[in-house]
Design a protein that fits this description.
Blueprint lengths: L3 H14 L5 E7 L2 E6 H8 L10 E6 L2 E5 L7
Antiparallel strand pairs: 1-2, 1-3, 3-4
Length: about 80
């Protein structure tokens, strides 16, 4: 399960204490992982109304991965 609290904390720090354009959000769109800058993602998702937090796969700042969704192991 996605921890919206962790994602919200990263978003808050990016917006209030850093440059949000430096952050990239990976999300699932029609079965494909797409990536957008944080401001683009907020506009696309309409504050998590269109794209819920459960579809976020990763958040990174430059090359540093800040959040990555755990994947299920297949047998």
């Amino acid at each position: 399960m996605t921890r919206k609290g962790t994602i919200a904390e990263i978003f808050s720090k990016a917006v209030h204490h850093d440059d949000p354009v430096l952050y990239y959000v990976g999300f699932i769109d029609l079965g494909v992982v797409r990536e957008a800058t944080l401001p683009e993602f907020v506009a696309l998702s309409e504050n998590f109304e269109v794209i819920p937090a459960t579809r976020i796969t990763h958040i990174r700042r430059g090359n540093q991965m800040l959040y990555q969704k755990a994947t299920k192991k297949r047998s």
